[in-house]
Amino acid sequence: MVDVVVIGLGPVGATLANLLGQAGISVVVLEREPAVYPLPRAVHFDAECMRVFDAIGVASALAEHCRVSPGMKFVNADGKLLVDWQRPEGIGPQGWNSSYRFHQPDLERILRERLATHACVDVRLRSEVFALDEQADHVQVRYEDLSCGALREVQARYVIGADGARSLVRRMIGSEMVDLGLHERWLVFDALLKRDWNVLGEHSVQFCDPARPATYVRGVGNRRRWEIMLRPGEDAARFAQTENVWSMLKKWITPDDAELERAVVYTFHAVIAQRWRQGRLMLAGDAAHQTPPFLGQGMCAGIRDAGNLAWKLSAILQYGASDALLDTYQQERYPHVSEFISLAVELGRIIQAVDQEAAAQRDEMFANGPRHLQSLSPRLGPSALLLHDAGGGLISHQPTLDDGRRMDAAAGSDFLLLTREGAFSEAQCEGARAAFPQPLRWIEDGSEPTREWLAALDADAVLVRPDRYIAGVARGGDALLGLTSSVGAALGATEVSVAA
C-alpha cells in the first residue's frame, strides 16, 4: 500500500506529487496520456505559484523559460481604456515577480524531471483509472495499463483527483458543480512569430468590442495568443479553419508575420464543485473548480490546492495529525477560489458585452476614466487552523533575513515562527515551540523587511504555515503561547515533534 495515489499528471498533479515526494511520502501517479501534451494551454502564473515551485526546487530552472508580464489593458471598440491592470515588474513582497508568462510544456517537463529524483514517487503513464473502491483504511484503485490492456490495481490511504474538468474522482464522490454564471465559446489561436512584430506591445489586451470580443496575450519568446469569442449559432469547426482565423486577425497580424500553431474552440466555464472531499477521496485543480481565463488564474488555483493539501497530508501521514484536518481543505480553499472566479466572471461581462446598448452602458461606466485593477490577495476561508486576527489566512510576505536567506528557504517545509528581534525571551519561544505538535522553526530577525512587515501586522511574531499562509500573529509572550497552542491543538496530533 502507498500513502497517496494522484490521478492526473498535469501541472497540478505533478506539483502535488513533487511536494509529497519531497516530504518522503510514498506516491503513485496514474496518468492516461503517454507524454506531455506538446501544445500551449495555460500561459500565466503568479508569485504565489512561483513560491510553490521554489519549494519543489524548480523555480530557477523554470524562471529561465518565463517572461515577467507588465499587465493587461481592457479597451473598447474605439480604443478607449476601460480597465488598466498594471503588474509591478520588480520583485514584490512575496520575493518573486507578481506575474509570469510561460509555455505549459516547459513547466510540465521541468516538474516531471524533478519527480524522477524522488525515489518514493512512482509515475505510471498510459494508466487509465476506471474504478475506486473505498475501504475503512484504504482505497482500492483499479486502472487499465493502456500499453498492453492489462487490468491492474493499487491500494492507497488517500486518492487525489487532479484529473481535470471531466474528473472521474468527482463523479465517484458524487459532487455536483455550482454554476457561477458564465459559459461562452471562444476560439483559442496560438501563433509563432516568423519575424519581428510588436504591433500590440508588451501588455496583454482585452478588446471589449461588441462586434467581436477578443483577447491578445504576449507569450514567451516568439509565442503569441489570440482568443476570439464565438456568437451563438456559429459553427465551431468552420470558425477554427485557418483562413477564417487569419481573416479576423488581419488588422493586427498576417500569415507573413507568423505561423499557426493551433486553433481550437473552448467553452469557458465558471463552476465550482459542491464537495471536494469524501472520506479518502479528494479533488484538486479543474476537477474542483473551473474559471474563465480573464484573470489568468485557472492553473494558479490548482497550484494553491496542491500547496494546501500537501502539508496537511504530510501532517497526517508523518506527524499523526487527525484525519479531520482534511476537512479544512475545502473550508479554506472554496471561498478563496470563489473570489477569483467571481472577479473573472465580472470582467467577462465587461469583455463579452455584445449587445450594442449594453456595451454603450458599459462604456458610460468608465466615462470618467479607467478602472485601475489590483491583483487579488484574498484570505483563506475560516478554519480552526487560522486565527481571526490581522494576518490569519493571508499569504505571507517573504522577507530577506539578516543572514541573507530568504524566509521560505529558512522555513523549508515546516511551520515557521518569525519574531521581531528582542521581542521574546528564549524561554518564551521554547515554551511556544514545545506546545506545538509538529516541527516548528523559530527565527528571530531584525532585518528591515521583517520589521516593516511585522509593524504592518501590529505584531511581534507571525506563524507561517508550510503553504506560506499566515496561521496567526502574536503580540507579547502570552499571545505567543496562545497562538502556537491554538494552532497546535487544531492539528490534533498524537505526538509532539520539535524542529532543531
TrEMBL record:
Keyword Secreted annotated: no
Entry keyword set: Oxidoreductase
One GO process term, biological-process aspect: 3-(3-hydroxy)phenylpropionate catabolic process
Keyword Oxidoreductase attributed: yes
InterPro entries in the record: FAD-bd, FAD/NAD-bd_sf, PheA/TfdB_FAD_monoxygenase
Pfam families listed in its UniProt record: FAD_binding_3
Domain FAD-binding span(s) in chain numbering: 2-340
One GO molecular-function entry: 3-(3-hydroxyphenyl)propionate hydroxylase activity
Top-level taxon of origin: Bacteria
Record PANTHER family: 3-(3-HYDROXY-PHENYL)PROPIONATE/3-HYDROXYCINNAMIC ACID HYDROXYLASE, FAD-BINDING MONOOXYGENASE
The protein's name: 3-(3-hydroxyphenyl)propionate hydroxylase
Organism of origin: Pandoraea captiosa
